[in-house]
Amino acid sequence: MIYDVIVIGGGPCGLATGLALQEQGLNYVILEKGGIVNSIVNCPLNIRFYSTSDRLEIGGMPFLSKEERPTRQELMKYYQSVVSRQSLEIKCFHNVAKIIKEPEHFTLQTINQHGNSIHYQAKMLVIATGIFDHPRQLNIEGEELPKVIHYYQEGHHYYGQRVMVVGGKNSAIEAAIDLYRNGAKVTLVHRGESAYHGIKPTLLMDIRNFIEKGKIEFLPQSNVLRIAEDSVLLATAKGTVSVENDFVFQLIGYQPDSILLKNIGIEMDESTLVPMFDKDTYETNIENIFLAGVVTGGTTNKVYIEDGRFHGAKIAEVIKKRFRRMNIGENQRLKKES
């Protein structure tokens, strides 16, 4: 069986793309390497999203949460209901290991949860893999140690531990606050001068209070040089210092799966990892391969679910028109031959 379209990625934007393809009457399947909306599953357990529920809706299905901003659990339940009610065609725990471009279609080699290799074929692809599965690296000694963690879920496990949080964006600030409230001894390391700029207003008062009262040690204008089993070596504004440490939360952002994209010939801006694609159609420099969702923003943090959820509708329109032209051309060819 050759599908019209395969969507790689079962996050909110991938699901929205599947809904749009379904509405256009196209034969499709979504391949997801984990469970549906896996990036949301890996969010902090008690997170309340900054986006309002209406800005996270897909497929025109209303999303009602108890408060204006939904919790992680509410959002997961919402997307589960969308998949169930709309009977989306999705294969979970199918990791796309390789994409082969054939003359008339694409062949995808996937590995399922049992380690079995399964092949799928489609005439067109939509890559909606997001960025959350690929944490950015510092490329320093000790980064591979088990004590280095790239995702934060909850703080109870780290009660009484010497914990360092590296980063200055919302995820890092939120983790530092929660770790302190769960009894960890927290050091916040940021390469910038302040931890107060560009973060959610809901976090600003707490982080300012904790830093100014010395409850969280803040080391601005600092970079991690080396991570050891019981310490971290830093370059700070006051010189090189060694900080005793049990765990490091390296929360410096995420990036697209550049290996997957480059292996099939998609060009990228090396500084931002923004893939090359047409801003009107979302088609990449490789014909019949499209991008949807957060992956289109690279490491710029300029594309979120709120924006990416609309990409699929445009892509589905473009693909539907292309199939229509292809069918017309094929019918004309057959008439000439007869």
TrEMBL record:
Iron among keywords: no
Entry-linked Pfam families: Pyr_redox_3
Keywords for the protein's UniProt record, in alphabetical order: Flavoprotein, Oxidoreductase
Superkingdom field: Bacteria
Cofactors required: FAD
GO terms assigned for molecular function: oxidoreductase activity
Keyword Signal: no
Protein name: Fumarate reductase/succinate dehydrogenase flavoprotein domain-containing protein
Species per Swiss-Prot/TrEMBL record: Neobacillus vireti LMG 21834
High-level lineage: Bacteria, Bacillati, Bacillota, Bacilli, Bacillales
